[in-house]
Amino acid sequence: MNFKPASVTRIRRKLGMLTAPRGPYISRKEPFLLNLIVAMSLVVSFAIAGCSSAEKIDPSTPEGAFKLAEQYEKDERYEESVAKYSELKNKHPYSRFAVMAELKIADVQFIRESYIEAQYAYQTFKDLHPKHPQMDYVTYRLGLSFFNQLPSTTDRDLSLADKAILYFDEVLASYSSSQYAKEAGLKKTEALKMLADKELYIANFYLMKKQYGSALGRYETVLRNYGNVEGFAPQALYGAAISADKSGDRDKLARFVKALLAQYPNSSEASKAKSEFRDVR
Questions:
Q1: Do residues 121 and 184 share a domain?
Q2: Domain total of the chain
Q3: Residue 260 contacts residue 237 (beta carbons within 8 Å)
Q4: What is the pLDDT of residues 199-230, one digit of tens each?
């Protein structure tokens, strides 16, 4: 069937001939009825046209099956889309569309926010097709799948942040000219901030509980692993100085205070250290 939807003007013209009033009086209902008929005619026309285009897809061929799966994806029929891509992959494993379908499965899972499924799909694709021309994209999306599984607060498990950073680093190192490199760097920084914030939270908790040795160790971890993450070093140096002072470690106290005053002289932590540790310079 090859049906082209009629234009609004053409439908109005034909219907107008049928409904034109024969006397001087025109009912106010007639324009409404005419518009209603036009709207219904257009809906039917486009529906028939849609059926016509769908009829052209032959799902028995790899290309047709791929187009049908894409159509399901566009219509947000995600489960059907994944099922059709999977069916294509299994029925036509040596077709170029099979590889395309593998990546599409990962993309659809990501779009529907099924990040665990997307993670596995991207990882499988990465393992099976390491030389694929879109490997920068696949690696970035893999990192993003881990990143999007992270909790909204840092008081919960953040172990997936390290995995996200691993793949963001791979994008930055192996695909530095990729269009995804900049975003990978930004997401890596976000993940590092979450990890640093959690470590600093634990350090502050130990300090509040007067467990100075444990607090000192945590502050040193912040400085060692997240010292370059903006905003965390001054807090960690100040906390480490207090912990070292309470622990009786004068050498570490002097080292932390000097580093704080030299590297972050305008910070609020430096101002507090100047007044609290006057004898340390």
A1: yes
A2: 3
A3: yes
A4: 999 999 999 999 999 999 999 999 999 999 99
Query: Quick one: pLDDT at residue 50?
Result: 45
- The verdict on 217 and 151 lying in the same domain is no
Residues 6+ apart with CB under 8 A from 51: 1
**Is the backbone of residue 76 left (phi > 0), alpha (psi -120 to 50) or beta?**
left
What is the tens place of the pLDDT at every residue in 174-194? 999 999 999 999 999 999 999
Range of the domain at 250: 210-276
**Based on the domain organization, do 186 and 221 belong to the same domain?**
no
Residue where one domain finishes, among candidates 194, 221, 248: 194
Residues 147/158, Cβ–Cβ less than 8 Å: no
Tokens 């799948």, located at residue: 145
Pair of tokens at residue 221? 């971890």
Q: In angstroms, how far apart are the furthest CA atoms of the chain?
A: 107
| Helices of type H across the chain | 8-19, 29-55, 62-74, 78-91, 96-111, 115-128, 135-147, 159-174, 181-208, 212-226, 233-247, 250-263, 268-276
Is residue 236 included in any domain, yes or no? Answer: yes
Burial of 95 (0-12, 13-18, 19+ CB in 10 A): middle
Residue length of the chain:
281
Q: How distant, in Å, are the alpha carbons of 17, 25, 37, 267 from that of 28?
A: 17, 9, 15, 75
Helix (H, G, I), strand (E, B) or coil at 145: helix
Q: Tell me the CA distances in angstroms from 90 to 72, 97, 132, one per residue in order.
A: 18, 11, 20
Residues 171 and 223 in one domain: no
Sign of the alpha-carbon torsion through 51, 57, 59, 63:
negative
